[in-house]
From TrEMBL:
Domain of life: Bacteria
Pfam families for this protein: UPF0158
Name recorded for this polypeptide: Uncharacterized protein UPF0158
Organism: Murimonas intestini
Length: 128
């Protein structure tokens, strides 16, 4: 499972213990990390930062999905993702076209492939 970085929390894989740790932005959240930031900085090989939402480009995923379609469907979705509000218009249009499940399946497979690639890039074993 890929865990995304939230706006005020960074997530790291603790390679030694096999779990994840959450590093909050103390100014934004008011939470105290109790020395975790220093621990991460002092042990770079132990903690591996998971991908952020900015590294997983949702817009690109929508474009890739559109390329799997043909004709009017592709044209309508291509138009829908132009400009401000693209994500909402895309989701609405997919629903109106009756291809929501096709989109969700595509998106899940895309995330799966990203996760596998990320694990391979970092020398991590994974199970399906």
């Amino acid at each position: 499972m890929i865990i995304l970085e939230f706006d005020y929390v960074k997530i790291f894989d603790n390679r030694r213990q096999g779990d994840s740790v959450f590093l909050a932005d103390e100014l934004a959240t008011g939470l105290d990390n109790e020395g975790l930031e220093d621990e991460i900085d002092e042990n770079p090989g132990r903690y591996l930062r998971l991908p952020t939402k900015f590294e997983i480009h949702e817009y690109h995923i929508m474009e890739e999905f559109i390329q799997t379609l043909k004709g009017e469907r592709a044209d309508r979705l291509e138009y829908a993702i132009q400009g401000r509000g693209a994500f909402r218009r895309f989701k609405d249009m997919v629903g109106r076209m009756g291809i929501s499940q096709q989109w969700y399946d595509f998106q899940a497979e895309y995330y799966r492939n990203l996760a596998i690639e990320w694990c391979r890039d970092h020398g991590l074993e994974y199970t399906e």
